[in-house]
Amino acid sequence: MRQSFIFFAALATALACAPSTKLFSDSSSRAMDAEASKVRVQADESQTLSFLGNIDSAIAAYYHDTGSIPPDIKSLVPKYLFEIPIVELGLPDYRNTRMVTVYPSSILKDGRVNGKKIKNTGGWGYVVNGNQVIAFVDSTAALRYPLDTHAPKYWYQQSGAR
Question: Is 144:45 a contact under the CB 8 Å cutoff?
Answer without folding.
Answer: yes
